[in-house]
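thought: user wants a sequence for this fold. calling inverse folding tool.
action: design(structure=
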């Protein structure tokens, strides 16, 4: 036999009984039943049972007895029916077994770092042995689903006339709100490339080039503190098109997501997706990426408390703020620990405290109730549909703070009450009309909410002229799935004057504009077409499709939460020679630390 195998391990059926077959793979499990050795032989497709009977071939059975989990073997033999009653209907090959006449050990596996059927216990250990961990059927399935997703996206975009173009990795800083990874240049000492935070500028320049429809499955790099579920490098499905309005980007994205869900999960996603403005999303859900799979909406109480005696609420309204509340149904049994947690959360997001009312035994329990008039109570009861067992949370503050606090608490309560745990709803949503700019008090300047190439809404251009920056809305949109932002984009500025004006508004003076973005401004002067686009976070999308809770589960080689690749021990110290070539000198402290771990100089 000049092939390693004649079949894969999920292939043989009843109809193959009596035939010869050669299989290869890993020993998933070895069982010894009184000298009869049962091997579950695994490859990426599945399992086949291989049975060594001493009465048929004593020598082979003896060899098989010494096989260990994860050894790589090849077996040839006859396909036989399983003994009646021992068939396994859960297995594609569950009717048959292979009775081998030969066994070749292709490689041994020694000292397994952990067992693949164990629960995740030590993530660092698993990441160190990631190539081994990836043999878990769940992770193997995730990688293949990821491939299905990118494949479906590619096919869809290709059918729509989009051209896949690679843009440089060694590139120039492009602001997407994170820190750049820098790569020192050897040929231009003292100068640095930046790894792209996104291919934003290149894709816009491709529009100036007349490409009209571009996409890329693009690697992006952002040097952020790795909060929660971030990775320093991740992948976007990056799209840009010329002569488009948001409607066309929405339809294209919806079509692509529908194709992806169909290909990866066999699900028909209804389109078009509903839309909500940023203002409405934050106002009613306390989030610009609302999870609408459960209610608990924020209710505005300005008209209830406008003339109230209760100073805390009245005061917030008088100083231009809001009073908002939400009803956590059936949450009156809130524990002291939960009260502490939610109060700490409210404070973390800028509130002074957290007021709430529990409805128990027909009574409203809260220190604030005594300040309410009967009319106010009645209005509250009807606006919030208050019933026995409910818990009402209040926020009286600036709009931004009150909505954020209640929005965070809303999500936490949904988690505690497991409101989405058993839901298989796919709630897609466009959030539109994001603000263009936000004020950074620490830096005392206006920043772009999205990035500085985002177009202001035409209706709001007069506000821009009047420098009422906080009120200008952007021609920007996000696509949200079940409370997770899976993509975002905008129509861009294509006029050099408008772009220069916005750079100035963001505090980039003319000299800096030329140094940082001269190429963009020059390109816009050479007949740039109107254009816009979007980028979807591939990792998050695949995570949701796979039903995983972390993007690490859908990346082949993720970094840990300290940004390290534990498997290859990267980042690692550089050799002195490399530093010399780059004309880099480390500051004294780091040098001592780095040299102690440096590989010897070659
Ligand atoms: N470059 C943007 C981002 O990475 C997406 C876009 O505007 O197309 O968020």
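)
observation: tool returned 602 residues.
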């Amino acid at each position: 036999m000049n092939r390693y195998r004649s079949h894969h391990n999920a292939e043989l059926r009843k109809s193959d009984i009596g035939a010869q077959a050669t299989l290869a793979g890993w020993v998933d499990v070895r069982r010894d039943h009184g000298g009869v050795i049962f091997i579950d032989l695994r490859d990426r497709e599945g399992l086949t049972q291989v049975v060594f009977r001493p009465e048929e071939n004593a020598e082979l059975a003896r060899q098989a007895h010494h096989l260990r989990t994860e050894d790589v073997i090849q077996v040839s033999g006859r396909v036989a029916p399983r003994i009646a009653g021992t068939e396994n209907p859960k297995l594609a090959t569950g009717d048959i077994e292979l009775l081998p006449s030969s066994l070749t050990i292709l490689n041994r596996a020694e000292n397994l770092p952990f067992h693949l059927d164990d629960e995740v216990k030590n993530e660092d250990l698993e990441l160190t042995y990631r190539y081994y961990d990836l043999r878990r059927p769940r992770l193997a399935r995730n990688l293949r689903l990821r491939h299905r997703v990118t494949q479906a996206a590619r096919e869809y975009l290709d059918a729509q006339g989009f051209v896949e173009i690679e843009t440089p990795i060694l590139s120039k800083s492009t602001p997407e709100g994170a820190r750049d990874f820098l790569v020192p240049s050897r040929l231009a000492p003292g100068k640095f490339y930046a790894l792209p935070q996104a291919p934003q500028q290149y894709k816009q320049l491709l529009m100036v080039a007349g490409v009209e429809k571009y996409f890329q499955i693009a690697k992006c790099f952002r040097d952020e503190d790795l909060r929660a579920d971030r990775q320093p490098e991740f992948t976007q499905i990056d799209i840009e098109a010329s002569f488009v309005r948001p409607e066309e980007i929405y339809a294209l994205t919806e079509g692509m997501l529908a194709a992806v869900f169909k290909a990866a999960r066999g699900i028909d996603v209804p389109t078009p997706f509903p839309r909500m403005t940023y203002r409405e999303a934050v106002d009613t859900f306390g989030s610009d990426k609302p999870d609408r799979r459960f209610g608990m909406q924020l209710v505005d109480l300005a008209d209830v408390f406008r003339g109230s005696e209760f100073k805390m609420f009245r005061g917030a309204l008088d100083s231009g703020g809001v009073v908002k509340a939400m009803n956590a149904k059936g949450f009156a049994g809130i524990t002291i620990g939960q009260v502490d947690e939610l109060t700490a959360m409210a404070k973390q997001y800028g509130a002074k405290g957290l007021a709430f009312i529990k409805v128990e035994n027909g009574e409203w329990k809260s220190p604030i109730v005594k300040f309410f008039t009967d009319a106010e109570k009645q209005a509250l009861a009807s606006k919030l549909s208050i019933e026995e067992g409910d818990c009402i949370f209040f926020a009286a503050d600036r709009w931004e703070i009150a909505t954020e606090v209640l929005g965070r608490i809303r999500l936490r309560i949904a988690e505690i009450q497991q409101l989405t745990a058993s839901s298989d709803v796919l709630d897609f949503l466009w959030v539109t009309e994001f603000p263009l700019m936000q004020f950074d008090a620490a830096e005392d300047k206006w920043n772009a909410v999205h990035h500085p190439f985002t177009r202001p809404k035409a209706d709001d251009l007069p506000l821009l002229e009047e420098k009422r920056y906080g009120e200008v809305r952007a021609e920007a949109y996000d696509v949200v799935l079940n409370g997770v932002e899976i993509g975002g984009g905008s129509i861009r500025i294509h006029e050099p004057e408008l772009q220069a004006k916005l750079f100035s508004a963001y505090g980039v003076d003319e000299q800096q504009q030329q140094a940082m973005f001269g190429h963009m401004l020059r390109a816009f002067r050479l007949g740039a077409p109107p254009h816009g686009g979007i980028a979807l976070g591939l990792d998050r999308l695949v995570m949701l499709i796979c039903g995983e809770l972390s993007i690490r589960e859908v990346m082949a080689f993720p970094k840990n939460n300290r940004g390290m690749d534990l498997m290859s021990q990267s980042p690692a110290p550089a050799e002195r020679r490399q530093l010399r070539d780059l004309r880099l000198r480390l500051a004294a402290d780091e040098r001592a630390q780095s040299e102690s771990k440096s590989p010897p100089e070659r």
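thought: summarizing for user.
answer: Here is the designed sequence. DSSP finds 18 helices and 22 strands in the chain.
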